[in-house]
Prior knowledge:
- The strands form 2 sheets. Strands 1, 4, 5, 6, 7, 8, 9, 10, 11, 12 and 13 form an 11-stranded antiparallel β-sheet that branches. Strands 2-3 form a two-stranded antiparallel sheet.
- About 25% of the residues lie in helices and about 25% in strands.
- The protein is globular, with a radius of gyration of 23 Å.
- The protein has helices spanning about 5-25, 30-35, 160-165, 200-230; strands at about 50, 55-60, 65, 70, 75-80, 85-90, 95-105, 110-120, 125, 130-135, 145-155, 155-160, 180-185.
- Helix 1 packs antiparallel against helix 4 (about 200-230).
- It is an alpha+beta fold.
Amino acid sequence: xxxxxxxxxxxxxxxxxxxxxxxxxxxxxxxxxxxxxxxxxxxxxxxxxxxxxxxxxxxxxxxxxxxxxxxxxxxxxxxxxxxxxxxxxxxxxxxxxxxxxxxxxxxxxxxxxxxxxxxxxxxxxxxxxxxxxxxxxxxxxxxxxxxxxxxxxxxxxxxxxxxxxxxxxxxxxxxxxxxxxxxxxxxxxxxxxxxxxxxxxxxxxxxxxxxxxxxxxxxxxxxxxxxxxxx
Length: 231
């Protein structure tokens, strides 16, 4: 009889673990082409043209291009390719004015460089299609035609971003920023996940965690009950 107390709790714990596992792997088969349809092209208005691709030589062959260059008139609007959090807004000698976006649904980061203007700040949540900056030629692109250097970075390094955006829909006009902007605290910001192009199922993960917590509480209650009975 004593083992009968554990059967419901163990079954519930097993169900919650299975649910949690399946929710985090259900979209692991998505390809870059599939993902591209769910993103926006980073340059708005249909003015952007890809003119330099992944692997092109740089600095006389001393390095390879880790991204794509999308040429457009200076001041052309740049948009968030997806919902997400702005993790970096800075100016440096190479990328000039640059922004990094951590999408809510993916484990990689989107990198926008050589911007003229930047309209976001670190920790700010942005919606897909929202204006985040404009095309420029800052940093080491000062002698080139204005363009956006766009890259995608995983925890293992850069990957070719072209398959992820070449078939993405182009938004004609950027969406207005949320008012007021939502800024997450340090504890709320997402860290970079292991290399993956699969979408995250946040809702499923949360549900799995809740079920596991409930199972643990049930099991704990049963154990306490058995202890009282034993006494």
